[in-house]
Design a protein that fits this description.
The protein is mainly β. The protein has four domains: 25-105, Immunoglobulins (Immunoglobulin-like), CATH 2.60.40.10; 118-185; 196-261, Immunoglobulin-like; 279-353, Immunoglobulin-like. The chain is built from one helix and 32 strands. It has one helix at 2-21; strands at 26-29, 34-36, 41-46, 53-58, 61-63, 69-72, 80-86, 93-96, 100-101, 103-105, 118-120, 124-126, 135-138, 144-146, 152-155, 164-171, 174-181, 183-185, 196-198, 202-204, 213-216, 222-226, 230-233, 237-247, 250-261, 279-282, 290-294, 301-308, 313-320, 324-327, 334-341, 346-353. The strands form ten sheets. Strands 4, 5, 7, 8 and 9 form a five-stranded antiparallel sheet that branches. A four-stranded mixed sheet has the order 19-25-24-21, with no helix packed on it.
Length: 354
Amino acid sequence: MKYLVKLSLIMTLLVSAFSSKSQTVTVTANHGDTICAGTNMFFHATTTDTSLRFRWIRNSTIVGGIGPNYGNNALVTGDTVFCYLTNAAGDTVLDTSNLHIMTVNASVHPSIITGGDSVCVGGTLALFDSVAGGVWHSTNTSVFTVDSLTGVVTGVAPGFGATRVVYTITTGNCPDSVRLRIRVNVPAGPLMGPSIVCRDSMFRIRDTARGGVFTVSDATIADIVFPNGGFQAYQAGTVSIYYAVSNACGSFLDTMIVSIVNCDSATGVSNTAVTATGLNIFPNPNNGSFSVKFETAENSTAVLSITDMMGRAIEKMDIAANKDYTITSGFAPGIYFITLKTGTKTYTQKVLVN
């Protein structure tokens, strides 16, 4: 029985030794053996028995831990990387992996892009980088284009945010880039919004050019409640709204006059005479169909425009004096402004559509 136990133990050791010697390890690199300087390299060892340990070697020096991965972003040409496969205790080498001999190519780093970061629609902006030899491109040519060799940017459409100019220098197969976000501006004006507002209501004034500052002539009549153009009307009167903005297109100061009127609480239609007698609208309020008449002693014409509370144009037409024009455009319920412009005068009246 004693001999049988010894024989069984010897057979177990032989099988274990044979199994250990049959283990192999292979190392792969995420970017191959030829890389650019500063590349984050990851080496991964593969074997069939995940319980075994790995001993990573760089240039004959033990590095990293005992896991199957090793990373380094500071390799240089001539560096060698491989690993040993050891038993679980780490005291017996079972196999040696393939050897990676690194070739590291130097890359040329661009400098900071200078020359500005904003351009007007239709205008140009010359960009520069102190490190020559690179190529320029735009990440969105619908907002701006850039000459690939000279770095001259041309504004196409207003925009700002994700659109950037990129300057790339490529040495061998090693590109390196810098980026700069570009804002494309438009000239300011005119201000857009309602010209007549009910007292105690809020309204909004907008401009195509962003980034400016609103001010008012009399904050007791209407004042700014949101810096992006939100206003509160406090009492009846007339207030001038100013918008100042400076951008790549120039410096601008736009003005808009807004009349604050007392409105009927039920209809929201002005019960204060704020318009000239030359413009008559009836009925008012109405269900979306109404008549407009321009009354004058002269045989003349005028331009009639209809806008909503946000200042958006709904309809525009030429009309002759002293004739009734029926408007049946099927307006949605709400408040609209009818503006009549002659050569020398402007008439405005509010209409309520139920």
